[in-house]
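Can anyone check this?
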Amino acid sequence: MFKSILIANRGEIACRVIRTAKSLGLRTVAVFHHADRKAPHVNLADVSIQLFAETPTAAYLDSEQIIKAAQSVSVECLHPGYGFLSENADFAKAVEAARIAFIGPQSEVIKLMGDKILSREFAEKCGVPVAPSVTQDGDLSSFVKEARKIGFPILIKAAAGGGGKGMSIVHDADSLERLAKTAMGEAERYFADSRIYAELYIENPRHIEVQVLGDGEGNVIHLYERECSIQRRFQKVIEESPAPSLSGELRDSICAAAVDLSKKANYLNAGTVEFILSPNDDFYFLEMNTRLQVEHPITELVCSVDLVEAQLRTAYTRKLPWLQKEIKQSGHAIECRICCEEPENDFRPATGIIKVLATPNPDDARFDSGIEQGQIISAAFDSMVGKLICHAENRNLATKKITEALDELVLLGVSSNIDYLGRILRNSNFAKAHIHTGFLTDNEGELRPVELAEDEVACVLLAASLGLKDFRTLSFDTPEPYASIGEWRNL
């Protein structure tokens, strides 16, 4: 095993990687911008190195500075986490050139799969189903002309995109050119690459993804699938595994397609192959994420594995830690993404200071986060601050368990989506597994909060306050020296 590791990330995923690395005896190195100098991932690591840049985001995207930091403390490997530089082929290549092991796939595979157009063409050559599409490889007018032939609705995407940026659903020919221009502009702004493509938009689809692990020599296994259909603006909100109401035959076909694609790419380390599943059970390749996914904990719980440990061992030995027959699914796991945002205000990101943070009992729920009480939540980073994950014998029990855990999770001082997540889990259509990527829009009315009268709000706040130990102590315990003086103090 490696002896030292640098985590080129922050927040929840940095803490997650550090914990597993420490359990394996690795010396851990964190990087941070001044804004994160007191963040949990900095305190958790054995060594921390400051990055300098005008903005926090720029610091975590400064590949040259990060590699120099890794070399300055002679680390053997580097884990990119997710987001930031995790799917940057040039960064992976530079890490390799610095003779540091990159915990992820080969740079050329990142480049292939990171380009939505090239990856689709590769998937098609591999015999993996791909939805009808057209690529913008000339002027806009010819692209619009060819896109019309697909039929409507059409989904326009950025070739180098991700996270819902540069994406638009086109319902008619009249708006096609306008939305194509908008998508090109967003693609250029977010990814410095204006190329777009259009594909047939499957209405009310499900989003199914498969976790894979490869040794870089053509040997690949899968760790089954995850359901990621509960989304807002193409970004996942709740994930679960196994995917409900999926036949064994269909599950096998989707997992086999993911493995076949990964084998032909000689894929190394952990990755995720994503598919769109139509209402009539036709599935199509969507993209491949060449990194660890945010939702990896649900796979860990149903398969009884540690994926970060698997990443490290695979990178070191270039051998898979398991045979396919050794991977079994057990029970059901659900993950909720905890975000500092205002669901009732179009999911606007929220900022502020975390005044109170109380988490559920670890025996009942897993809470992966990179936050602590007193921490400042700024607009510099993504609104997701943690993940709540529960595992149980079946889907109904897992839903009940995570709903109760959400009720126990307290985050005060900054607006969050905790209550909103609870309303989703209590929704009757979610309980029946009537889910698809338009679920939140279709059930918008039922997901609105119940309006309380002013006196009811006061009662709820008082009850919540009385449930907090710190509040009870400050309010009712007699402070020293008065507690020692006795009753005569009031005379």
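Reply from J.R.: I decoded it. The chain is about 35% helix and 25% strand.
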